[in-house]
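Q&A log
Question type: sequence-to-structure
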Amino acid sequence: MSTVSATSKDPKRRRTIKADVASSETKRSKVSILDSHQAKSRSSAHHFHAEEEEAASRDPIKDVDLYKHTCKEVSKTFAEICELKKTEGKEDAVTNKRIHGSLQFIALRKLNRLSHLRCKKVRDATNEAKQKIDLYHLQLQNLLYEAMHLEKEITKCLEFKSKDEEIELVDVDTFYKEAPKEISKPAITKKDTHIQTLARLDWELEQRKKLAQKLKDTQDSKEVISIDIKSKQEYLESLQPKLNAILEASTPVQDYLGLPFDKIQEQHKTAHFLPAPLYVLYMQSSGYKEACDKKLSVTIEGSLNDAKAFHDAPSDAEDESDSDQEESEKKRKKHRRRTTTTDKVSDKKMKLLRKHPLSVLMKLEFKDGIVLNLRYFYLTSLHIVAVKACMAMEKNTVGSVVGGDLLQPDILLECLYPGDRGEETPNPANRFQMKRIGIESFQSEIETAGRPYIWAQWLAGLQFLSNVTEVKAQSSVSSSRMDEIIKQLRRRVQTKMVLQKHISAIENGTISVSKQYQKLFPVKIHSKVTSWTRETFLEYKMLPQTKSLIDTGMVEERDMFFTAMIERGSARLKADIVLSPDYPYQSPIFALSLEWQSQRNNTNDENIRAMEAEVNLHYDELMPGGKPHAELLTNQLQRLCMCLDIFLESESSYSTTAPVEFSKEKMMPRIGRGPGRAKALRFIPQMGFFAQR
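Response status: OK
Response body:
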């Protein structure tokens, strides 16, 4: 009582007691809550494990069927509740149906939990299987890496080569045959290959020691010989000034005897500065002169100092692009003198057609003091050889008024080989070079540069082929063509000289037939050549009897055209003659027209065509042996005069009323044959009479 009263009297103490009581109650409540949670967690864990076991023990297919059945029951319950709500007084039935539907939902939730547990179990099993597979794969990779490492090590061991394998040892049989027995030891080494290899290495060492000693002895002897050579060389060098003095003193004797050793020596020194094609030309032609043709002379012309400067100067960049030229122009000074476009083109042209300072002069001497001078130049940018020709003749040489240009260089050397007129460069690359600077054809530059004949390239060892990009001068090309080309040049000049003499005689009305060909014609021919003139291609083209020749391409504009007038009495036969540059290897072509009683030519008279055929087609009868000769033109003219006699005498024989102008003097068994009354134009020398073909 006293305590209670004391407590009631003291309010502070009363409050503390209440707080202690409250705290103790709070603690008890917390403990009870914890105990309840632990109990729940234990029960939930037990329940979870129980459901896992239940999920494992139950059949999933039956659960699926149960799930479908439960869903139908839920749907059915909802439908019944809806019907009951439409009627009054069915609250108890609705409540029962709700309870039944709730139980069905509880069943669905349980089935859902069981399905998730099954899925989780399958995922865990799948992950566990994947981990095992990854583990096995990693182990496999490790094993493969170890196997690859072992293979590499095995390969290194197999490919290992020791230093002794680099030494080329003698074969085993030679080793046992040559090596002494104290080194070879056949009783031991034949059983053990390792000891055998060591013994072979010892023998190799002994051999190399001997070779090293031999090399040393050889080098010592070489030094002794080199000292001897050096002393002799010094002696020879001391002789050089003495020999030069002797040569200088013997110059008058050399000139007197015609042995110009000094000039030849100077020429040979200068030849070293020639470009490769001209060097080949000079050396090959010099050798040909010494061996085959004493009337051929070859010399080098030009400035040696310029050639040395040209040889030492760096080659210009000839293939500069337009962009590089524009950049160089921008870098020049502003106040420089500006060149015009024409000046630039002319500079490029000069650079393209630039010649080497040295040239080769070839002289071919002929009878009557005629000399053919051929000067060969090398165009350094175009990489071809050009020729300039010149004829030197004495004043008393027989000439011709009409054929005076036959010995002009351009006509003389034209078509020395078929189609080679020297107007186009034989190097295919030159066309693109000339096109870049506006030169359409090399023909316009011939007067400046010369003519690039193909045979000139052959003499210089150059041969341009379609499938070869780089052309070099080859001595084999020059030597294989030298004899042929020199003979062809001499043959051409001699032919033109003879032709000029014959044309000069024809101008004077004389057909000079040599004695060896006089038997091909009758003794007496009345028709004579009264005139011989030159005509142009345009004049020749306008004639009706020449149209077929021009259309077939047998006559070209560059050929030489002549007109011969043959007369006998009142008959005048005009012959338009075409001479090819390659005469007599291409026979002259005659086109005839006769003015007698009417105007006749090959278009309206069969006899004129027969006379043309006799001259143009059967000219091989005028060349005994089938060899072309320079007198083919005169023989054809003589045959034409003979054919005119036969024609006139045959035609006069048919006339019975008019007076006979041309008496029959030739022996003809038959005046005419066949419906066309063909004339006996063929002369048979053995019989001395004429007959039809």
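Response note: The mean pLDDT is 82.
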